[in-house]
Pyrroline-5-carboxylate reductase (Nitrosospira multiformis), 270 residues
Amino acid sequence: MNITFIGGGNMSFALIGGLLQQGYSPGQICVVEINAERREKIKHEFDVEAVAELAKGLSGSDVILLAIKPQQLSAVARELAALLRSHLIISIAAGIRATDISRWMSGYARVVRAMPNTPALIRAAVTGLYALDGVSAEDKRNTETILGAVGSVLWCNHEELLDAVTALSGSGPAYVFYFIEAMQKAGQELGLDASQARQLSLETFAGAARLAIQSDEHVATLRARVTSQGGTTERAIQSLENDNVKHAIVRAIHMANQRSRELGDEFGRT
Ligand SMILES: NC(=O)C1=CN([C@@H]2O[C@H](COP(=O)(O)OP(=O)(O)OC[C@H]3O[C@@H](n4cnc5c(N)ncnc54)[C@H](O)[C@@H]3O)[C@@H](O)[C@H]2O)C=CC1
Ligand SMILES: O=C(O)[C@@H]1CCC=N1
């Protein structure tokens, strides 16, 4: 299975790195990238072919992975329409609907919409997937192999759920970093130096997440176990509740979901 990436930015870097580590050979991968500096970087980093012209990048490829910004997608998809043979198309663009990509490509229906996240860089991504009806069982397995090279994958049965995936896990690493930023700030205000605050915050976050993954219990139960009656955690959680922090986080994720849908509507009209 030969893969052509359209766009050689951050996400393509993560995915290509994962595929090569999984045993893919550089000869199976090609990148179409309009920026000459990026092309050089890709060649230098991975020893894979990087070209500027779409048609040149597609020769011999079975899968086209669209990794350009949502704003650039409709023009590229329309250009692709005339060049398609029997390619599987996978798009990772936020918000852009598989149904619109298919429409821009004159109804071509072998389209999968995927939403990975940046932990792909260390092969710890989670990716939501949605397939149009024209995608075969083999196409689905190939999609799982490609996105599975950088982490775990899950299929959604309805396209709207990809907006939810985008809001929860696509953007999610930013929420986690935001929380860690706050923990580090507090640690330093309490007299720890930057490196101590970093170590304590990050390892607490990673340890708690690992514990939750390995435990069969609900996270609320795990939280209760940290919270001694009359103790320090109780005081902190009460403060979070008084400030309505859970509500604020839930609202933020709804906002991201709304933005993903807006992106779909915005470009769906074109
Ligand atoms: N950054 C993130 O956390 C995530 C991003 N995404 C999605 O992945 C897509 C790519 O995101 P990034 O890699 O972060 O963006 P990026 O800006 O790092 O990469 C995009 C690349 O595409 C190139 N490009 C632009 N127009 C092109 C064209 N016509 N032909 C070929 N190359 C072209 C640009 O020069 C750039 O190198 C976006 O649609 C984004 O919504 C999906 C999941 C997570
Ligand atoms: O912020 C964005 O639009 C992209 C999609 C998910 C993560 N980054």
Observations:
- The mean pLDDT is 96.
